[in-house]
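Technical note accompanying the year-one report. For the benefit of new consortium partners, we illustrate the data format agreed upon in the data management plan: each record pairs a sequence with a structure-token string. No post-processing was applied to the example shown here.
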Amino acid sequence: MSFQTMLGLLAEGFGRTLLIFFATLLGSLPLGMLVYFAKKSRFAPLRWLMDVYISLMRGTPLMLQLMVVYYGPNLLFGLTLPANWRFTAVLVAFIVNNDAASAEIYRAGIESIPSGQYEAAAVLGYSGTQTFFRIILPQMVKRVVPPVTNEVITLVKDTSLASVIGIMEMFTRAKQIAVAPKSPGMLTFAAAALFYYVFNYAVAFVMARWEKSLDYYR
């Protein structure tokens, strides 16, 4: 197998990795805010449900969650799932895992803001919604960028777990290439590591620039 062929196969797997990554971000970041609002709800059963949900998502391995989402509907309820359920299960598992983490990050960011700002907003006649979106949210975003960056970088690496239910992302592709006849061997894993490193570096760079651009509230 030529070096160019190996890179082409890795790039194909990396495309699947990127799809999982961006779909998870688009789903989990806004859903995390909804989970946070539900956790702070005045309706006690909903708060308890969110506490249990977050505890389960953060306290169990993502690999186990992938297997439960993929195999659970058939084993527990006897459902016949569509052919594309494998990839859908990956997205569902990744999103529900990451939105729980995002909810806790948002909670920490919001609760770090002094309560006096809420009182000052009330004196100025702001409603609760106006206070949150015009005063609290901009500050919260600035404060949560570093932990969100860590979660995003972890997500890039966690995409390799999709192989547990047979999704051919980049790391799985690298393992296949490495054991193929006349393959470049360890050079394949070195190339895969470079793919991950360069992408993580790009993510960290973009997030750092975003954090710097949020200095406005000072």
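Partners are asked to follow this layout when depositing records. The chain has one domain: 3-217.
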